Amino acid sequence: MEEKTVKWAILGPGKIAKKFVTGLKDVEGAELYAVASRSKERADAFAEEFNATKAYSSYEEMLKDEQVDVVYIATPHVFHFGNTLLCLEHKKAVLCEKPFAMDTEQVKKMIAMAREKKVFLMEALWTQFLPHFQYVMDLLKKEKYGKLKKIEADFGFHSPFNEEHRLYNKSLGGGSLLDIGIYPIFTALSALGIPERISAKAKMTTTEVDEECEMLFNYKNGAEAELHSTVGRETGTTATFYCEKAEIKMNSRFHEPTSVTISTEDGNETKDFNVTANGYNFEAAHVQEMLKHGRIESDQMTFEKSLQLIELLDKVRTKISLVY
Predict the structure, then answer these.
(1) How confident is the model at residue 3 (pLDDT cuts 50, 70, 90)?
(2) Number of independent structural domains in the chain
(3) Residue 109 neighbours by CB distance under 10 Å
(4) How do residues 89-119 score in pLDDT, each as one tens digit?
(5) Would residue 320 count as lying in a domain?
(6) What is the pTM of this model?
(7) With b meaning 16 or more CB within 10 Å and e meaning fewer, what string describes 240-250?
């Protein structure tokens, strides 16, 4: 029997949506079917550039289209909650960009509605599905190089200060923490679980969001994670795992497809994963697999993991007095 084509719809045709649909081209059985924007011009331009069948100037109109199987939400953080609930109300499966929402309460409501409506919902934390990331997490889980003692992970790039820009605009959920600090935190959560203690400090902008955030997570077993995010300067953007018998390093930029270097007493070995696509294909293929099996929740990027992640983000925000 021939596999059913999954018709994808894009809600919010911005920069990240362009990356996602580029990755979608490498997913078997995926079709970019529709796009919706509050601007008809933007929807039309996106549809033309990426060959989508339909372009809508209203989210509701797109969600009423019975052909739509799953919606990828790519709007700014502050809109994730409302956009997700709208999609779930219309019984549309949802892959929503990270951070899932602005706080734990919103995420709990999103998950509750997905369960109530029996509709698939997942946070689009694409790193979870990348081969190099899964490889390293497997090494750590099996303790191939002994116990994990420490993690150092950072993510930084330079974005000139502009109070209107999404990254610096408080009303759009700006700041380094929610945008990119989420990746080092997610990495620590994946490798070590929930920390016992969190300390954090931030450099704030005149728009009252964090330009830079430094975090230290301490764990019951004595392990620690030094995490850092900044939109004020370029950093190595690597993640290093210090185990008893080796250092395992996800090379730059660790959150996207990259190589892994393992350093032991015998020397260094770098493993390349030969990913030819842009990497967004892995999470999209996973969503299609879940839909095929009638799941409402991913077995990898679970509701529990998304809840733990937003709870950690909330705790760090409290520490640095970041209030939206």
Answers:
(1) confident
(2) 2
(3) 14
(4) 999 999 999 999 999 999 999 999 999 999 9
(5) no
(6) 0.97
(7) bbbbeebbbbb
- Mean of the per-residue pLDDT values for the chain? 97
C-alpha–C-alpha distance, residues 216 and 318, integer Å: 14
CA distance 142 to 150: 16
If asked whether residues 266 and 135 sit together in one domain, one would say yes
Match 């950093």 to its residue by tokens: 235
Which residue, 125, 158, 184, sits at the end of a domain? 125
Could you tell me if residue 317 is inside a domain? no
Q: Is 90 exceeded by the pLDDT of residue 4?
A: no
Stretch 260-268: mean pLDDT: 97
d(CA 42, CA 52): 13
Q: How far apart are CA 185 and CA 319, in angstroms?
A: 15
Mean pLDDT of 170-185: 96
Looking at the predicted structure, is the pLDDT value of residue 232 above 90? Answer: yes
E strands within the chain?
Answer: 6-11, 30-36, 54-56, 70-73, 93-97, 121-124, 148-156, 197-204, 210-218, 224-230, 239-243, 247-250, 260-264, 267-271
Choosing from 125, 159, 188, the residue where a domain stops is 125
Q: Do residues 73 and 166 share a domain?
A: no
Whether 149 and 111 share a structural domain = no
Tell me the C-alpha to C-alpha distance, in Å, between residue 108 and each of 45, 77, 228, 303, 308.
35, 16, 27, 9, 11
CA end-to-end span of the chain, whole Å?
Answer: 50
Residues 113 and 163 both lie in one domain: no
Domain that holds residue 35: 6-125
* Beta-carbon-side half-sphere exposure of residue 7 (alpha carbons within 13 Å): 14
